[in-house]
Amino acid sequence: MATYAFRLNGRSVSVDSWDPGQPLLYLLRGALGLHGPKFGCGLEQCGACTVLVDKQATRSCTMPVSRAAGRDITTLEGLGTIEKPHSVQAAFIAEQAAQCGYCTNGMIMTAAALLSRTPKPTLEQVKQGLAGNLCRCGTHTRILRAVMRASQPPPRVALRRATPKQSEGGV
Amino acid sequence: MQTLSSMSSISRRDLLKTGGALVVSFAFGAVLPRRSAAQSPTADGDLAKMLDPSEVDSFLAIHADGSVTLYTGKVDIGTGLRIAVAQMAAEELGVPAERISVVDGDTGLCPDQGGTGGSTGLTRGGVEVRQAAATARKALLTLGAAQLNRPAADLTIADGQVRPLAGGSGIGIAALLGERRFSVKVDPRAPLTAPARYTVVGKPLLRPEVPDKCTGRHVYVQDFSLPGMLHARVIRPPTVGAKLVSVDESSIRSIPGIPDVRVVRIDSFLAVVSKDEWAAVRAATALKSTWSDWQGLPGNDGLVRYLRDGAIDRDEAVVSRGDPAAAMPGAAKKLSATYFWPSQSHASLGPSCAVADVRADGATIWSASQGTHGLRNNLARVFGLPVAKVRVVFLEGSGSYGTNGSDYVAADAVLLSKTIGQPVRVQWTRQDEHRWDPKGPQQLLDLQAGLDSTGRIVAWDTQMWLPATRPGGRAYLAAEAAGIAQERGQNAGALAQNGDPPYAAENVRVLVHWLKETPLVPSNLRAPGKIANVFAVESFTDELAAAAGVDPVAFRLSRLTDPRAIDALTRATTTFGWRARTSPNPQARQGNLLTGRGVAYMRYKQAENYIAMVMDVAVDPASGRIAVRRVVCAHDCGLVVNPDALRNQIEGCIVQTLSRTLHEEVKFDRSRVTSADWASYPILTFPEAPAIDVILIDRPDQPLLGAGEAATAPVAAALANAVFDATGARLRTVPFTPERVKAALRSNG
Question: How big is the A-B interface in CB pairs under 8 Å?
Answer without folding.
Answer: 214
